[in-house]
């Protein structure tokens, strides 16, 4: 019985190895990166191993080695992806904390922040795939338009928050596009929490517990993943966003329809359409297509969990906040500093 063993890198043995009269080849993986290939044969002194058998085993060895190496590379790629996800998640959490703290000290800006986020997204044009929540509303020529009146204070507020966020960011400054949409998220969460506190007779501790137990925090997953919007380099075209306080319900419906939304989404976004949600809903209720949804969400807001209202609002916000956007899922990541073990004194 004769044997030839190949381990990962095989030298040229074609002219040196005996040839079998009855040869059997076996290839197997030993450990994670060592591949053995053996040819077993009964032979007499006059027989020689054929060139074909050697090449066959050599090819199998190389193939299995490539598979092992590609698996190793895949593991490295997955590890890098996990690191980037953690970096983005940690940065996003800090952003939310900064915005929540800032907004808590300026609750009167909540309605304006909601409208700011809506109007930035409403510049989306379905035909040309342009506009959308791209931060273009930050430009003076756009924030000064009639539909954006009274929103400058909200923008200034976010610019101050941006300075703080950029000061601790390790992966570059946050885009205005992301900043505006996440500010709207924090504003919406604050209204949900305020509603829970009110239902608990003004007891903040009980209201917070109620919101934690019955609120819709778990519904924000897809919204949070859309993190990495790019800022526009110039203002979006005029005439794409209505003046909500001067628009008829039909005009509002037409605008929502133009971006792929309907009466249901118009009704659930009533808080975004002006500072007085009750007045906006009274106007929207005059339309027979919108009325059933207004009534549905009003009933929902009176329940303990207000699930229907919160879930539909989050779903609509998620769609609006991604219109026309290509998300950079590597945004805000940064190289991990390597440890020089030679400098460690162990």
Fold topology:
Blueprint: E1 2-7, E2 22-30, E3 34-42, H1 51-104, H2 110-121, H3 140-143, H4 152-168, H5 176-199, H6 204-214, H7 221-225, H8 249-258, H9 263-268, H10 277-284, H11 291-301, H12 307-320
Antiparallel strand pairs: 1-3, 2-3
Helix pairs in contact: 1-4, 1-5, 2-5, 5-6, 11-12
Keywords: Oxidoreductase
Domain Plant heme peroxidase family profile: 97-271
Protein name: Thylakoid lumenal 29 kDa protein, chloroplastic
Question: What key phrases describe this protein's structure?
Answer:
Peroxidase, domain 1; 2 domains; peroxidase activity; Haem_peroxidase; 7% strand; Peroxidase_I; globular; Thylakoid lumenal 29 kDa protein, chloroplastic; mainly alpha; three-stranded antiparallel sheet; 346 residues
Kindly describe this structure.
The protein is built from 12 helices and 3 strands. It has helices at 51-104, 110-121, 140-143, 152-168, 176-199, 204-214, 221-225, 249-258, 263-268, 277-284, 291-301, 307-320, and strands spanning 2-7, 22-30, 34-42. It has a 3-stranded antiparallel beta sheet with strand order 1-3-2, covered by helices on one side. Helix 2 (110-121) packs across helix 5. Mean pLDDT is 85; it is low at 1-47.
């Amino acid at each position: 019985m004769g044997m030839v063993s190949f381990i990962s890198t095989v030298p040229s043995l074609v002219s040196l190895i005996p040839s079998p009269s009855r040869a059997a080849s076996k290839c197997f993986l030993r450990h994670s990166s060592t591949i053995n290939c053996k040819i077993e044969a009964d032979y007499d002194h006059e027989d020689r191993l054929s060139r074909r058998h050697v090449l066959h085993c050599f090819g199998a060895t190389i193939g299995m080695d490539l598979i092992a190496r590609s698996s190793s590379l895949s593991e490295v790629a997955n590890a890098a992806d996990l690191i980037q996800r953690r970096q983005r998640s940690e940065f996003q959490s800090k952003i939310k904390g900064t915005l929540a703290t800032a907004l808590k000290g300026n609750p009167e800006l909540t309605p304006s922040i909601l409208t700011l986020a809506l109007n930035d997204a409403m510049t989306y044009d379905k035909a040309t795939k342009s506009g959308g929540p791209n931060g273009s509303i930050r430009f003076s020529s756009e924030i000064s338009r009639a539909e954006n009146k009274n929103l400058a204070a909200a923008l200034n507020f976010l610019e101050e928050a941006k300075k703080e966020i950029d000061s601790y960011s390790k992966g570059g400054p946050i885009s205005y596009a992301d900043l505006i949409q996440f500010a709207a998220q924090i504003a919406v969460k604050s209204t949900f929490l305020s509603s829970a506190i009110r239902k608990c007779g003004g007891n903040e501790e009980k209201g917070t517990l109620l919101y934690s137990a019955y609120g819709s925090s778990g519904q924000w997953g897809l919204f949070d993943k859309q993190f990495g919007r790019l800022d526009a380099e110039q203002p979006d075209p005029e005439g794409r966003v209505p003046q909500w306080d001067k628009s008829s319900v039909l005009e509002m419906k037409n605008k929502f329809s133009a971006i792929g939304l309907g009466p249901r989404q118009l009704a659930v976004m009533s808080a975004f359409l002006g500072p007085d949600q009750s007045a906006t809903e009274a106007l929207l209720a005059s339309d027979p297509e919108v009325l059933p949804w207004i009534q549905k969400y009003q009933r929902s807001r009176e329940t303990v969990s207000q699930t229907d209202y919160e879930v539909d609002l989050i779903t609509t916000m998620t769609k609006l906040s991604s219109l026309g956007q290509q998300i950079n899922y590597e945004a805000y990541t940064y190289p991990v500093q390597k440890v020089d073990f030679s400098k460690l004194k162990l």
